[in-house]
Amino acid sequence: MAQKQTGEFVNARGQKLVTVAFLPPAPQPTVASFLYHHGMGEHVGRYDARFAALAEKGIATFSFDAAGHGNSEPKEDSERALILKFEHTVGGGGARRGGRGDASAPSP
Question: Which of 6, 22, 26, 81 could form a disulfide with 51 if both were Cys (CB 3.0 to 4.6 A apart)?
């Protein structure tokens, strides 16, 4: 059975984004890795069955709820799925190391 792991990271705007990973069952080797970024108004929970099926075939699958989607912040209705800048959609806006921030990261 595939191994599901969840976590979170903080982007450069201080928002917690929820992550998910589906790993092949031990001792099956990983033959490939797949990173999935969901579409507008979606969330990663919709893809659990598909991600698990990929992991069963040896494909480690990684994804996250984008800002304002699913279980990620912001949670306020007025900011759900709101994209003010295209730069906010790529790479989570620059992840902070250890949740404390990176002084070299560009300002939001």
Answer: 22
